[in-house]
Design goal:
The complex is a heterodimer of chains A (388) and B (261).
Chain A lengths: L6 H18 L3 H7 L4 H9 L18 H14 L1 H20 L2 H13 L4 E4 L15 E5 L2 E12 L6 E7 L9 E7 L5 E6 L10 E12 L3 E2 L5 H37 L1 E2 L2 E2 L4 H29 L6 H31 L5 H11 L6 H17 L6
Parallel strand pairs in A: 1-4
Antiparallel strand pairs in A: 2-3, 3-7, 4-5, 5-8, 6-7, 9-10
Helix pairs in contact in A: 1-4, 4-5, 4-7, 5-6, 5-7, 7-8, 7-9, 7-10, 8-9, 9-10, 9-11
Chain B lengths: L2 E4 L2 E3 L5 E2 L6 E2 L5 E3 L1 H17 L3 E6 L5 H9 L4 E5 L9 H15 L4 E5 L10 H9 L3 E11 L3 E8 L2 E8 L2 E5 L11 H9 L4 E2 L1 H4 L34 H14 L4
Parallel strand pairs in B: 1-6, 1-8, 6-7, 7-13, 8-12, 9-12
Antiparallel strand pairs in B: 2-5, 3-4, 9-10, 10-11
Helix pairs in contact in B: 2-5, 3-4
Classes of the chains: A alpha+beta (388), B alpha/beta (261).
Chain lengths: 388, 261
């Protein structure tokens, strides 16, 4: 399929693919097995300028948008989404600063993030606040010119490895979700520590930890935007980053399809390659149809967002939910095509299947995404004449 | 310190086909790649630049399409590139090639070090690097596996040998040819790839180099290829045994019997 990418976009895809093929594919099994953060690969991505794709040139980036970033995420994900979540996670941490930060905050943090010298991470989820972000209990109380933070964030991607954290905290509990604010906290700030590294089913190359705040003091200047907009910051940021999960999903699906097709061409049963059997062909065909449909939706969502459109929540959620459901199905089917070999760790598809599950869960479960889409439908149709 | 890196575009070996009548490579339609050994030369040049400053300039002699190879090395971070290309250069052997490249180096200007891959995977001669140094009358070290020290005036290197390595110190300017053990080439960068698309790569022919047609290409070559063939394998061999003296005696009498000595 030709998606009429620009020359620069083709270049991004080509470079990301080269790094995925030469640096990530040979390392992915070991990174998964050892649950090791892929610093070597992050350094390669940084020196290749890919960490700076979506930041303006004035902050050391390449001036691209959501689409450019997603093209890189897709190609990296073809090899390993454990690595691509490390790549994309830093973007998630940086977006609150990019979208809502002051000029001073942008100048202070974005060049280091865009060059890949430092990674960023986003801290929203807590033990009792996941899908329901209004249940946040981590608090930040203003004391003179400093906020004093107390509480624990859970399952934070990049925890311990990133240097710059954007954290959603309650600055006014009495106002519920309107009392939430976004603060920047740097690694090494007294009172800020990390809990244990979680043991996960998949995406094991990435680090997931608790962020523990105990009378952690940060300057008032670290407040992103103004007090009380933390919930809006989160929603706006996630609206822009969800197609990134879609991009992970289509890359992963493509990787699984590639493996399944090449295996089916080689594997012989009853004297013939199994790809000659209609039962196998139909499975592969369905995998290809779904992957391509997901890609078309993710690309369209990215282009819509980059056009400057305001009402992006629905299409952003659609691109995430559809392609992550596709990735789950495609990877399960890839294991089926490979049969017994597919279940063994000698082949990459069992890892792909384990990895795929998280895509339906993080950055808002697929059930929450459907809520978002449903709410948007209600709003849209409320204003329309009945045209049955 | 400026570094000049010589690169050659070669056919990708996996796609190469041989013309059965002439035993020569069929180059039409095969994809050109950068000679893999030259990538180590490029990487080493970039590392020296990162350490000592200056520029890395890539130089290649080849047909017009070798422009692609030079653009590719620019994407890895090379500052500039020059293509030596002229119909008169066709059919050059290693003598004529090193003469032409040496002229190119002189025209590029001041440099501290020239780096070449140890050999090209198509010709496999390993002669062009040393040939350039001879023409320029500068010291050279072939098969360098490590640069131990480098300053603007001297260079200490390890030269790979069959049974170990030599440590050599040379004064600059000099030329080295490098083996794959020397480094791990980096990935290209996006900014490099963007630059590669638009960078101006000058093409220098005989008039720009101030060299006569007699010195280059087939006319300037000391070797002429008469025929290329696959040698027949002769399976006959014999191991001589016993003490060294006995083995030597046996060998001498065999060679004598075969009228070789």
């Amino acid at each position: 399929m030709d998606y009429f990418l620009t020359e620069d976009q083709k270049m991004i895809k080509e470079l990301s693919r080269q790094i995925a093929d030469e640096k990530i594919m040979p390392a992915r099994a070991e990174l998964d097995e050892k649950e090791e953060f892929p610093w070597e690969i992050i350094k390669v991505l940084a020196s290749s300028d890919l960490m700076g794709l979506c930041y303006p040139e004035e902050y050391g980036g390449l001036g691209g948008g959501t689409f450019e970033n997603c093209l890189a995420v897709e190609e990296i994900s073809r090899a390993c989404i454990g690595v691509s979540v490390c790549f994309a996670g830093t973007g998630l941490g940086a977006y609150p600063i990019l979208l809502f930060g002051s000029e001073d905050q942008k100048k202070r943090y974005l060049p280091d993030i865009a060059s890949g010298r430092k990674l960023a991470a986003f801290g929203l989820t807590e033990a009792n606040a996941g899908s329901d972000a209004s249940g946040i209990q981590t608090s930040a109380v203003l004391d003179g010119d400093e906020y004093v933070i107390n509480g624990t964030k859970q399952w934070i991607t990049g925890g311990g490895e990133a240097e710059i954290y954007t954290v959603i905290v309650m600055t006014d509990k009495s106002r519920g979700s309107r009392g939430a604010s976004a603060l920047i906290v740097e690694k090494g700030t007294p009172g800020f520590t990390f809990g244990i590294k979680e043991k996960k089913m998949g995406i094991r190359a990435s680090a997931t930890t608790e962020l523990v705040f105990s009378n952690c003091r940060v300057p008032r200047d670290n407040l992103i935007g103004k007090a009380g907009i933390g919930f809006i910051v989160s929603m706006r940021v996630l609206d822009r980053t969800r197609p990134g999960i879609g991009a992970q999903a289509i890359g992963l699906s493509q990787g699984a399809l590639d493996t399944a097709v090449s295996y089916a061409r080689e594997r012989k049963q009853f004297g013939k390659p199994i790809i000659s059997f209609q039962a196998v062909q139909h499975m592969l065909a369905d995998m290809a149809i779904q992957t391509e449909a997901a890609r078309a939706l993710v690309y369209s969502a990215c282009r819509f967002i980059d056009s400057g459109a305001k009402n992006i929540s629905k299409v952003s959620a659609m691109s995430k939910v559809f392609s992550s459901d596709v990735a789950m199905k495609v990877t399960v089917d890839a294991v089926q095509v490979l049969g017994g070999y597919g279940y063994m760790r000698d082949y990459p598809v069992e890892k792909m299947m384990r990895d795929a599950k998280i895509l339906q869960i993080y950055e808002g479960t697929n059930q929450i995404q459907r809520n978002v889409i449903g709410q948007e439908l209600i709003k849209e149709y409320a204003g329309k004449k009945d045209n049955r | 310190m400026n570094v000049i890196v010589c690169v050659k575009q070669v056919p990708e070996t996996t796609g190469v086909k041989i013309n059965k009548d002439t035993n020569t490579l069929i180059r039409e339609g095969t994809k050109g790649i950068i000679n893999p050994f030259d990538m180590y030369a490029v990487e080493e040049g970039l590392r020296i630049k990162e350490k000592l400053g200056g520029e890395v300039i890539a130089l290649s002699m080849g047909p017009p399409q070798a422009d692609e190879a030079l653009r590719e090395v620019v994407s890895y971070g090379v500052d500039g590139a020059v293509l030596l290309s002229d119909r008169a250069f066709a059919g050059a052997d290693t003598l004529a090639t090193s003469r032409t490249l040496a002229k190119g180096v002189e025209k590029v200007g001041e440099f501290g070090l020239i780096i070449c891959g140890k050999q090209a995977i198509d010709g496999d001669t390993a002669q062009v690097g040393p040939g350039i140094a001879e023409r320029l009358d500068i010291p050279y070290v072939a098969f360098v596996r490590k640069i131990r020290e480098i300053s603007n005036h001297t260079l200490v290197v390890e030269r790979m040998m069959d049974d170990g390595y030599d440590v050599l110190e040379v004064t600059l300017p000099a030329l080295i040819t490098v083996v794959k053990e020397i480094n791990e080439p980096r990935m290209p960068s996006l900014r490099g790839k963007m630059k590669a698309k638009s960078v101006d790569i000058p093409v220098w022919g005989i008039s720009e180099l101030g060299i006569s047609e007699e010195e280059v290409g087939l006319k300037g070559s000391a070797t002429q290829v008469i025929k290329i063939f696959t040698p027949q394998r002769h399976g006959n061999r014999e191991m001589l045994e016993g003490s060294v003296e006995r083995q030597v005696d046996q060998l001498v009498s065999r060679l004598d019997g075969m009228k070789i000595i």
